[in-house]
Amino acid sequence: MKKNILLGSIVTLGLILSACSGGEASKKDGQKTNSEKVEQKITVSTPAPISTLDTTQTTDKNTFTMVQHLFEGLTRFDEKTTPIPGIAKSIDVSEDGKEYLFKLRDDAKWSNGEKIEAKDFEYAWKRLIDPKTQGPNAYLLDNVVNGLAVRNGEKPVDDIGFKAVSSEEFKVTLEHPQPSFLSVTAIGWLAPQQEKFVKEKGNKFGTNSEDILYNGPFSLKDWDGASDTWTLVKNDNYYDEKSVKLKEIAVQTLKEENTGINLFENGELDLVKISGQYVAQYKDNPGYITFSEVSNSFLDFNKKEGTPSANVNLRKAIALAIDKKGLTESVLADGSKPLNGLVPAGLYENPETKEDYRKYAGEFSTYNVEEAKKIWKVAKKELGDKVKVTLLASDSEQSKKVTEYLQSQLEDNLKGLNISVSLQPANNVHQSRADGNFELSLSGWIAGSSELDSYFNLYVKDSSYNDGKFINEDYTKLVTDAKTTNANNPDKQFADYKKAEDILLNQEAAQVPIYQGAGNYLVNPNIEKVEYPLYGGYFFLRNAEVKE
């Protein structure tokens, strides 16, 4: 017996956030009073350029923000980050919660007018998980029947537990029930791809705005693969195009906040992310929006043998030597909060007890200078009295502030430790980490869905994101059990994850959590219905519109 799910009634397991825009910017001369006649064009900024629009390969938050505007999966997130119907018009779920039958919309089309078919999902998902073309987020399909075995190359890709059973029906079979699965299918990484188009474009696919097909509320123009500016244009072939009010969204990459502030003040920019001193300056502005993000910033170590950061006592000393409260209150001063765990608060709660995972698991590696100094003495006996470590970080304004603070804290509290800072453009940082060319790095993460595994997967043995080469078999087994065998037993799942977190943060100090971020924006007051998703991007403009 199967049950039909109306996605609009599903509650995302986690904190639900939404905010309507409000903001203050000068009105332009000649602005029309009839809201229907107001020009539906806006300009927004992002802190980094797009990396790739091959949805199976995207990783960074800025690109993901664009992806969620340009592509749509079987489900999509509404203004409360709840999964609702996307390309699927209905879903049948088996009583045991393992089998999903997605029925596609009749009017779902690609930006070239061709119909989207179930085989487009099968092709894209296989590209994501096939070892020959595998993307970094293939782990999202580990709970699909044979998913982990296929990802690890132990079984052929055709043995995977999903397939197009007809042109309009896509069937997925899971190993274990997964309460958050419809949240996962809303992630842009699981959007469809048309096989004919991908093969026709070859190596050019996803590298510029012309060599891509879109199926979301917007399409893209004027992006050549390296552009700092581009434009989102309303996709008239989108099945719900009547709900999309904005005609054009001009996007600018701005690293310097001051530049964005000036443009906003002059009415040349309608949405800009701010932090630090600007939060205090503009917090009473009608256009100011603030909320806690389900994101974390942390220090990551390269554990390659022969590097100072491979020394566990060095890592433990660093983990205890940072006053995170001082950072969030005195330096960031933007609503960010100290974080002493891998997973930020507000991501996921036990569906039975309603307890948030972060509260359940508690805190790890809290600030303790005296203990840090004791461990540092041991580290110096193993490494020498003078230890030099390079800290890799992006060249954004906020990263500069954080790295300066961390450098000062660590050198003051751990005498003999010298921290040199290497600031690089965001995409270069991603590449340096992927190549293993770092010792210590300031990194960040925001989940694409409410999955706890989105954070724990970063450090499993075979993870595409495990750039520091952390290997602990007990950790990997606990994480694997939590997302598979114990996926439908919240108490056991939480216990597994807590044990894994203890290994990662206390026993091995493989990561140092720093802070949970806050979202702070200035938004033109004439723009309504800007959405700030709980996970998966900076902002979402599907339903936004310019009003009088």
Supply the key terms.
548 residues, alpha+beta, D-Maltodextrin-Binding Protein, domain 2, Dipeptide-binding Protein, domain 3, 2 domains, seven-stranded mixed beta sheet, 16 helices, globular
Outline the fold blueprint.
Blueprint: E1 2-5, E2 41-46, H1 61-70, E3 75-77, E4 83-85, E5 88-94, E6 99-104, H2 118-129, H3 147-151, E7 162-166, E8 169-173, H4 181-184, H5 195-201, E9 218-221, E10 229-234, E11 248-253, H6 257-265, E12 271-273, H7 277-282, E13 288-301, H8 312-320, H9 324-332, E14 337-338, H10 357-361, H11 369-383, E15 387-394, H12 397-413, E16 417-424, H13 426-434, E17 440-446, H14 453-456, H15 473-483, H16 490-507, E18 511-523, E19 527-528, E20 545-546
Parallel strand pairs: 2-11, 15-16, 15-17
Antiparallel strand pairs: 1-5, 3-4, 5-6, 6-8, 7-8, 9-10, 10-11, 12-18, 13-17, 13-18, 14-18, 19-20
Helix pairs in contact: 8-11, 15-16
What does this structure look like?
With 548 residues, the chain is of the alpha+beta class. It has 2 domains: 2-253 and 524-546, 3-Layer(aba) Sandwich (D-Maltodextrin-Binding Protein, domain 2), CATH 3.40.190; 293-518, Dipeptide-binding Protein, domain 3, CATH 3.10.105.10. It has helices at residues 61-70, 118-129, 147-151, 181-184, 195-201, 257-265, 277-282, 312-320, 324-332, 357-361, 369-383, 397-413, 426-434, 453-456, 473-483, 490-507; strands at 2-5, 41-46, 75-77, 83-85, 88-94, 99-104, 162-166, 169-173, 218-221, 229-234, 248-253, 271-273, 288-301, 337-338, 387-394, 417-424, 440-446, 511-523, 527-528, 545-546. Strands 12, 13, 14, 15, 16, 17 and 18 form a 7-stranded mixed β-sheet that branches. Helix 8 runs antiparallel to helix 11 and helix 15 runs antiparallel to helix 16 (490-507). It starts with a strand and ends with a strand.
